[in-house]
TrEMBL record:
This is RNase H type-1 domain-containing protein. SUPFAM superfamilies: Ribonuclease H-like. GO terms for molecular function: nucleic acid binding; RNA-DNA hybrid ribonuclease activity. Residues 268-376 form the RNase H type-1 domain.
Length: 389
């Protein structure tokens, strides 16, 4: 092939016009491959012009055009190339061996060829080609494992592909308590099948019973994490039976508005923001010891967050009480964050520091008790605050 296509020209600069498909393919990949070969000078039989012996590329492409018989090294090669050659290319120590090509893409300098051969399936006793469906679904031990856990969950997986099997588990119609566990079953089963495959590949043993035990253990751990307050059984059938029959305990507390004692006036405040930085309102209402409404106010304020609206409502309520001469007030809010801030348990956020400062200053002018209350206790106040919308 060299005598036919590169008899007059070196293979580095030979053309492919009218050549065979094989030679045309070689010319196509030449630009990608040739500059990755570095020649180590020994006997000196490498081509000065067409072999990459300087690691800068083929001299034919980097040295100005000149006639070979008229070349003088220092007259035709730039000074930086000369310095590079003298600095990086040592003088050959032996002259009785051929110049050695070095493949620069490998640390060893050797050019190797790899053949893509199908991997052996480690999940089967008979040697077969390893594929993802074979490893995770259709192999005997995988099929047996899937059927075991699917039958207890009343899921039919016969004749389905691996993505369809996973989708069956994810979309299964079951009680709400079971859904978090059913959704992780495919990941747990596939993960343990992969671990078993790796153990067998590296010469370790893994039986079917140990595989079932590990899947049960992983499901139990996930169930214990998801439902930390429940005593989850350790096996899959018992887990399903337990969660299907489980009836959660309902905890409740009766809430109602309690009138203030003595001559105190109770003030309930509320603030709201639609979008938690959008259209906002604040409001408050005052009631005496008999529960009669003394005063109520609700208005729209500038766009703010829920926390800012709650703080503005408290400031407006305290300001009104001082204005009308109410010196003993019990103020209730459902914002536990503001309670922590006003009692100096938490630091004051920067965005409400001015409002909190106004509340602290106003609190020095009268006796005010600030308490936390449930949201349901101040339904009337919430109506006044939302009236601003």
């Amino acid at each position: 092939m060299i005598n036919k296509y590169s008899k007059k020209y070196h293979p580095v600069i030979a053309h492919s016009r009218g050549a065979s498909p094989v030679w045309q393919k070689l010319i196509t990949v030449r630009e990608l491959i040739e500059h990755q070969i570095l020649w180590q000078i020994r006997m000196g039989d490498a081509s000065f012009w067409f072999d990459n012996w300087t690691s800068l590329g083929v001299s034919y492409h980097i040295i100005p055009e000149t006639k070979e018989e008229e070349i003088e090294l220092r007259d035709n090669i730039t000074e930086d190339i000369v310095q590079h050659i003298l600095r990086t290319i040592p003088a050959p120590k032996t002259t009785n061996s051929l110049d050695k090509p070095i493949w620069m893409l490998e640390h060893s300098g050797r050019f190797t060829v790899k053949i893509d051969i199908a991997s052996q399936c480690w999940c089967c006793t008979k040697p077969t080609t390893e594929t993802m469906p074979r490893l995770f679904l259709t192999s005997p031990i995988a099929t047996k494992l899937w059927r075991l856990f699917a039958n207890f969950a009343w899921i039919q997986i016969e004749g389905l592909q691996l993505p369809q099997v996973c989708n069956k588990w994810w979309t299964s119609d079951c009680c709400s308590k079971l859904k978090p566990l059913l959704r992780v079953v495919p990941a747990i089963v596939i993960g343990n099948l992969w671990k078993r495959r790796n153990r067998l590949k590296h010469g370790k043993s893994s039986s079917y019973n140990s595989l079932v035990s590990k899947v049960n253990s992983d499901l139990w751990r996930h169930g214990r994490t998801t439902y930390s307050g429940l005593q989850i059984p350790t096996t899959w059938p018992n887990i399903i039976d337990f969660l299907e029959k489980h009836t959660p305990r309902v905890h409740y507390i009766a809430v109602s508005w309690k009138p203030p004692k003595g001559r105190l006036v109770k003030c309930n405040t509320d603030g709201a923001s639609r979008g938690n930085l959008g259209r906002s309102t604040s409001g408050f209402c005052l009631r005496d010891c008999t529960g009669d409404l003394v005063y109520a106010q609700g208005e729209e304020i500038q766009e703010s967050t829920n926390l800012e609206a709650e703080a503005i409502a408290i400031r407006e309520a305290i300001t009104h009480c001082i204005t009308v001469g109410m010196n003993q007030v019990c103020l209730e809010t459902d914002s536990l964050i503001l309670i922590k801030i006003l009692t100096k348990v938490w630091e004051i956020p920067r965005n409400i520091s001015v409002i909190i400062g106004d509340i602290m200053d106003a609190s020095q002018l009268c006796r005010i008790q600030i308490k936390h209350t449930y949201r349901e206790w101040k339904y009337a106040c919430r109506l006044f605050s939302q009236h601003g919308f």
